[in-house]
Each structure stands twice: as C-alpha cells, then as structure tokens.
Design a protein that fits this description.
Elements (H helix, E strand, L loop, with lengths): L47 E2 L3 H10 L3 E6 L2 E6 L4 H10 L5 E9 L8 E9 L4 E9 L5 E2 L8 H12 L3 E2 L24 H13 L6
Parallel strand pairs: 3-6, 7-8
Antiparallel strand pairs: 1-2, 2-3, 4-5, 5-6
Length: 212
C-alpha cells in the first residue's frame, strides 16, 4: 500500500465578523530586478531674451522700463505702466506697427496689487512682424486707451472691459459690448461664477428659469 502523506495544516475558520487573512504574496524569484522609476518629466520651454535692432533702439530710450522676451517664437515687450502709452505710440509712428490686432488681458488673482496683464497685440505690414506689448495693472486702476493711436482699439477695449473689468482711461465710450448693461461682474476673471450670474440675470430680466 502507498504510504499516506500527512495532511496539510488547515487554518481555523475566522471568527464571526472577522475578515479572512489575506494570502501572502509569493516571493519574487531570485535575481528579478525592481521596476524602474518613472522618468522625470522634462522641463517645459521658458522665455528667452529677445534681441533685435528694434529692441536695441527701445532699450536705449527706455532702459529698465522695458523687458523684451521671446517664447516659442512669440516676441513680446513688458513695459512699465508709466511709459506704456508712449512706447505704443513709438511702436506705431517709428517702428511701423500700424495695425492693432487685439487688446486683451490675463487675470492673476494671486498676484496682490498686480492682478492683470493688459496686452496689446500689434502687427506691422511693412515688416510682416507681430509683437505683443504688456503692462501690469492693479485691479481698479486704469490702463491707457489707445483709441487715438489705432481706431480698431475702440471695440477691443470695450470687450476687455466687458470681460475683465479693466478700465481704459481716455476711451470715448467705455461700456459693455457683448453682455447686457445690467450684467453683474466680469466673466473672464478667474473667480467668476458664470452659472450663478446666468441664472440670476435670466430669471430677473426674462422671467424664466435658465436652461443651464
């Protein structure tokens, strides 16, 4: 007769309400290498100094009042608010940037007393060149209107006011252009609650519930 093999030890059943013990993970074979760590995410592109004959001319005039940078092929000049209007006039009259493509803003609520970048996007037909001019504006302080330099800035500045609440000193008729006059707040500010305002305006002015 074949010899009886001893029975394997049997664990006692778990007590009432007690979860059964998890089975131990099998040991890794000897010599098995650990999984390599995930590769470090490469750093993204960063702005670089922008050098050109035009920038040299502007630096000789404004010194530390401007900072010229380039980022992914996009050239821009950061100017102090005290000189930005004069700089924009020089860009039009002397550097031949005869077309104001856009006037807009970017909201940085975490930057105390520097909440907005106001941005003018300019284009030169003569040089086939585009450049951005930026300045920093505190919430509640105005930026200079450039309607007197480029007529196209009229509606562009109104849109920037409508969406961000940035006022343009010297604008001939600064009022909302996309939203109704009774609209509260400025939708492109980071903290703006668009759904709440939409519900409120539709209910008050149209007497119906919003479809959102």
């Amino acid at each position: 007769m074949p010899e009886d093999k001893p029975d394997k030890p049997v664990s006692p059943p778990p007590a009432a309400g007690e979860k059964p013990a998890a089975a131990a993970a099998p040991p890794k074979p000897a010599g098995e290498a650990a999984k390599p760590a995930a590769p470090t995410k490469p750093a993204g592109p960063v702005p670089q100094l922008w050098e050109s004959e035009m920038v040299t001319r502007l630096r000789s005039r404004y010194g530390s009042g401007i900072d010229a940078k380039t980022y992914l092929g996009q050239n821009y000049i950061i100017a102090d608010i005290s000189i930005v209007y004069e700089l924009l006039q020089v860009m039009r009259d002397e550097e031949q940037f005869d077309y104001c493509v856009d006037v807009t803003a970017v909201h940085y609520p975490q930057r105390k007393d520097q909440e907005f970048d106001v941005v003018w996007i300019l284009y030169s037909f003569e040089h086939n060149q585009r450049v951005r001019v930026k300045t920093v504006v505190k919430d509640g302080d105005p930026a200079p209107s450039v309607v007197g330099l480029w007529t196209t800035a009229n509606w562009l500045e109104r849109e920037c006011y409508d969406m961000f609440g940035v006022r343009f000193e010297g604008h001939p008729d600064l009022r909302r252009i996309l939203l109704p006059d009774g609209w509260k707040g400025f939708p492109l500010r980071k903290e703006y609650g668009i759904t709440q305002q939409d519900n409120e305006w539709v209910k008050i002015n149209l007497g119906i519930e919003s479809g959102r």
